[in-house]
UniProtKB/TrEMBL annotation:
Residues 152-358 form the 2,4-diaminopentanoate dehydrogenase C-terminal domain. SUPFAM superfamilies: NAD(P)-binding Rossmann-fold domains. The lineage of its organism: Bacteria, Bacillati, Actinomycetota, Actinomycetes, Propionibacteriales. CDD domains: nat-AmDH_N_like. Transmembrane segments: none annotated. It holds the Pfam family DAP_DH_C. Keywords: Kinase, NADP, Oxidoreductase, Transferase. Residues 14-80 form the Dihydrodipicolinate reductase N-terminal domain. It comes from the Bacteria. InterPro entries: DAP_DH_C, DapB_N, NAD(P)-bd_dom_sf. This is Diacylglycerol kinase.
Length: 368
């Protein structure tokens, strides 16, 4: 399938103005095939403020943010770019997304990440309810980003097209999270800064398989693999050697400072697809763990077989580090996918269902 080029600009609403939403506003404003028509905020103090101000653009866009859901749906946008926090309200956010589909609005969303490829993770009835909502409203939903997302679905599957034989695919995020601003994720879900005997949600049995299992399953689906029924979860947490501070949470010495985890898909007991995260809050800690090829964060794709291949992918913000650019690339993967999602058949879409998505129209003009 070739890339989709709309005949006229598509009307888009951005849902939230936080760490991803503000970049989504900027991305839509810069995209020649998209038109920003509305912005939703959950913060009463932001109600009525101009989207340009909320996105930090230094100029007004003539679009006032609102806390009124129905007001935005009544605009009949072609698509909602949903960038609201979903990690701590997975099922409530699924209800929100289902409602948009039923109302006939296409959605691209950064979460909940379980919807990146829910087959094998969510109950079949929940998946069917989403699909039915899409059919009822004639709308599609695509959940993606950078991780889970492009770095561990499109990129490894494109690399696999060079393979003669594949023994194992491993996708890794290797990053310093010290400048990653998500206090709920860092403190409550990961447990950074908490005692080593604490029990944060992410390390409870089955949670990793639900959160990152869809990555393993979408790669397996792209390779035509039938995985063993239960994914393997592996976690190693280590304490901070000294007091340290991050933008999200203070980490006293002896509390959790680093974590390395894996979700592994096996076939007849043999590991075939592995998702790994190596997450530090000090770039010099855990020297025995994998380190980025450059900078303080990036992604690594390793395919063993014939031939053996490795790609290291890093990014860095023009006005910030890899955690800033991580928000930008997450937003832009969604922004640039909008034409393809709007043109697709109704239902729940994974990366396997989309045509080529590019940065068409985004090459900077001379002097810009």
């Amino acid at each position: 399938m070739s890339q989709v080029i709309p005949e006229k600009p598509l009307r888009v609403v951005v849902w939230s103005t936080g760490t991803i939403g503000r970049h989504a506003i900027a991305g839509i404003d810069a995209h020649p095939d998209l038109e920003l028509v509305g912005v939703w905020t959950s913060t009463p103090d932001k109600n009525g403020k101009d989207a340009g101000e909320l996105a930090g653009l230094g100029r007004e866009l003539g679009i006032a943010a609102t806390t009124d859901r129905d007001e935005l749906v009544a605009l009949r946008p072609d698509c909602i770019l949903h960038a609201a926090m979903t990690d701590d309200r997975v099922f409530e956010s699924i209800e929100d997304l289902t409602g948009f589909l039923r109302d006939g609005v296409n959605v691209v969303s950064s979460g909940p990440v379980i919807l990146l490829y829910p087959q094998g993770t969510l109950p079949e009835q929940m998946i069917e309810d989403l699909a039915e909502a899409g059919r009822t409203g004639g709308a599609s939903l695509h959940v993606n980003g950078i991780d889970p997302g492009f770095a561990n679905d499109v990129l490894p599957l494109v690399m696999s097209s060079l393979s003669q034989r594949i023994d194992h695919v491993k996708v890794s995020e290797i990053a310093d999270y010290a400048t990653y601003y998500q206090p709920v994720v860092m403190r409550d879900l990961f447990g950074f800064g908490q005692p080593m005997d604490a029990h944060p949600l992410l390390w409870e049995p089955g949670v990793l398989g639900s959160a990152w299992g869809p990555v393993v399953r979408v790669i397996a689906a792209g390779l035509g693999l039938t995985l063993d029924e239960k994914l393997v979860e592996e976690v190693e947490r280590r304490p901070a050697a000294s007091d340290r501070s991050t933008v999200s949470v203070d980490i006293p010495a002896g509390t959790m400072g680093s974590v390395r985890f894996r979700v592994v898909g096996t076939v007849d007991g043999v590991p075939r697809v592995t998702l790994e995260h190596v997450t530090r809050t000090d770039p010099d800690s855990e020297p025995d763990w994998p380190t980025p090829l450059q900078g303080d964060g990036g992604y690594r794709i390793e395919i063993t077989g014939e031939p053996c291949m490795q790609v290291d992918f890093s990014h860095h913000g023009e006005h910030g580090d890899h955690n800033v650019s991580g928000m930008i690339v997450t937003a832009q993967r969604l922004v640039n996918a909008i034409p393809a999602v709007v043109a697709a058949e109704p239902g729940l879409l994974s990366a396997l269902d989309l045509p080529l998505v590019t940065g068409r129209g985004l090459v900077a003009k001379a002097g810009a």
